[in-house]
Amino acid sequence: MYMLTGAPTVDKKIFELGIPVLGICYGMQLMTNLLGGVVERAGKREYGTTKVYIDNNSKLFKGFLEENDCLMSHTDKVTILPQDFKNIGYTDNCQNAAMENEAKKLYGIQFHPEVNHTYRGTEIIRNFVYQVCGCKGSWKMSSFAENTIKELKEKIGDGKALCALSGGVDSSVAATLLSKAIGKNLTCIFVDHGLLRKNEADEVEAVFSNSEVNFIRVDARRRFLDKLAGVTEPEQKRKIIGEEFIRVFEEEAKKIGTVDYLVQGTIYPDVIESGTGIGNKIKSHHNVGGLPDYVDFKEIVEPLRDLFKDEVRQVGLELGLPEYLVFRQPFPGPGLAIRIIGDITEEKITILQEADFIWRSEIAKAGLDRNINQYFAVLTNMRSVGVMGDERTYDYCLALRAVETSDFMTANFSKIPYEVLEKVSSKIVNEVKHINRVVYDITCKPPATIEWE
Ligand code: XMP
Question: Domain 141-326's class?
Answer without folding.
Answer: alpha beta
